[in-house]
Design goal:
mainly alpha, 18 helices
Amino acid sequence: MMSEAQGASEAVAPKQVRRYDIDWLRIGLFGLLIPFHVAIGIYWSTYGAEINPNSEPPSSELLAGEGDQLRFVEENDVYTPESVDFTSMVLHWMHQWRLAALFMISGMGTAFAFKRRTWQVFLKERLTRLIIPMFFGAWTMGFAGSVILGGEDMSPLGLTLGFLAGVIWRSLVFWVPIFGKLIALGHLWFLWNLFQYSVILTPLFHIVRKDPDGAIPRMMRGIFTLPLGLGAFFLLPLTLTLTEILFKPWFPGYIGVAYEWFWFLGFFAIGYVCISAKEEYYGLIESKRLLITGITALLTVAFVWLRLEQHDSGVPYVDGGWLENGIFHDSNTLLACFIHSFHAWFWCLTIFSWGAYLLNVPSDRLAYLNQGVYPFYIVHMPLTFAGLRIVSEIGLRDYSAVLVATIFVVITCWAFFEGVRRTRGSRFLFGIKEVRKIS
């Protein structure tokens, strides 16, 4: 027999109308992880020169002596995160809004989920869907990546001891800012941030769920009905800008730490607000789609200028941490905070507005692809290392190396997903939801 509490919960639970565009955008933005991570391994040497096919100098004559080699690297090697060649600029541009949009989508998904869940059920699901895959992925994929990069003793005993030691130390240091994320979690830092944001904002979610017509929900809806789009076009990105003004001078943003921790929290919370004010939000972005797109184009030009200024001046306007340059704030750093946040925000609005226009359609493939998001995300990094080793060995460079390595990673991730989705235990470990029929 259904319990009284369950019956009451189901009686008040609102009917949920699925937004297919959010699902498609989630799949697409997570899908961009693979070519992005492949490309930064080639164009920025992010994972080390030994697996970067572009790291080999083209001419042995240039390397006749050590001095020549140093001169070659300093004068001719554009494959660093500071470079401003076309490909590197595209990667910088993509990096400014892709993760921000993913955190917004996570906040949107939270708004849908919390409408039909108590806070206790929500946090339990967050634990099983985020923390368990995070730990399991850190233990297994982190170790696999270390093996591929040559960081482990390859004897049977060495591999066994290395894996067991990794389980222990990764479990102990994952929470340490910067070090824990970089060494223990690697690319899985996203799950840890997402769990923290979910826990911190659960009281707000609970208040809104209990009183959907209260002051806070009314304020959320009112943001999108202010004249001239003032709420969405200025007030929301201004809150993001303020986090940069407060936190960005101190330390560069990297893997969701320093100012990025607060910045991504803002995007997550705003995503929740958007779906809490669903009709008003979609009414705005659908009616102002072309205006949003035009503003985004102008802000993209401003971002390119800012990135070039960073390169020329040596002041990390985009990355943060300019106290090392003896600056807390000046007119340029304040302008940089505005450009950076408004640029990322308007790209999110552009993506979501065109997604609402083009992608809000069901598909038989959608549930299958949604299931693949977490497994692809969890396993893709060591496979990226393997793909880069392969293209290095066969002598590919630049775009051909990106293309071949990306195809390799996609195929191997897909094969892995097909394997782990077939048993209940492996689905649990990789955060795979059960398939629900799309209606």
